[in-house]
Amino acid sequence: MSATPRPVEDRLVYSREELLDSGPYAAPLIAGGVRCHGGFEADGRYRSPRTIHRAPAIEAWQARLRREGHDLVEIPAAGMPPTWPSVEQSVLLLEHGVRDPIVRTLTIISIVEGFGAIIRDVRIPDLRALVVEPIDGTALAHLGEGLFEAHARDESGFKDEGGHKQMWEAARDLALDRPKIPGDVLMRMMGRQAARKKAERPFPQLDATLERMLGVMAQVLVVEIFAEGTFDWGHRVLSNPKVSAAPEAAGAMVQHIRSDESPHVEYLRTALSEVRARTLRTVDGKTIAGRSVVDALLHRILFELTRHRPQEQRDDLRESLATAMQVAPDPKRLREEFDALDVAWTPPAKTGFEPALTP
Length: 359
Description:
Structural class: mainly alpha
Shape: globular
Radius of gyration: 22 Å
Largest sheet: 3 strands, antiparallel
Distance between the termini: 61 Å
Number of domains: 1
Number of strands: 5
Helix content: 40-55%
Number of helices: 12
Order of helices and strands: HEEEHHHHHHHHHEEHH
Strand order of the largest sheet: 1-2-3
């Protein structure tokens, strides 16, 4: 008598090869002349890369957490800073022939996507030695077994396949008809990164490699969730027939990237939620609740991003905005209309992950 196969949702262990498998496509995705990851089913629907096993695996790990009575990490949507320039401001600029600020913004997005590949270089410590409870059959146990690598390949491509970097470039070039790219974009970004002070370790009692890994995961999770605003902005601007040379193709490209990002958010929040449900060993032989560590990291990141990201977006463009507007027939009037569309935003008083007060 043959054994009855377990339902897919009950399967909790996957090989690296499975988590990196995309399966066959009826047609490839070509972006800007580059064969990119993902592809189309026979009915024309786009299917994200490396999800044929990765997607059900994440669903199974999340279902296990819920069965065990644990919640998944939820980042409050109210804390998401608005994109600047806004959709309305961006369309206004493009309608007046001012393309440089939008080209800069889209180029920055593509560069940041390419940087996402560094997640494959995040060192993973011996989690079974540092986590008190078992981690078999969890997303945590699969970080080095395909999850980090799949994420990296999605962002920057792999071998002869392009990733999100190339897809954003294609969306930009389709909508704006291959615009001239400012030569100082990368230099400005690197200068800003170099100016940031290195933060002190919030948990020196933890293994340093574990602390860094959790910190990177928390940072990337927040950035990926906040990127939803970027996708909305990109789709609404680049699919607008008033300002886009290829509204359907450019808008569709943004939507493809948007769907690809879903597994990133879900595996990261799953693994961090698994840590919150466990106990971590410290270097001095004691223990600390995983919830305390994850919540403190998320609080710190959310606090910093919600207070600095909006200003950084403006700083990226402010210096060049006035110069760019000079191509408009009436730069002064355009600036007044642009500023009138600005919407003030105040970050929420709380992040939702404030450390509990000790008596």
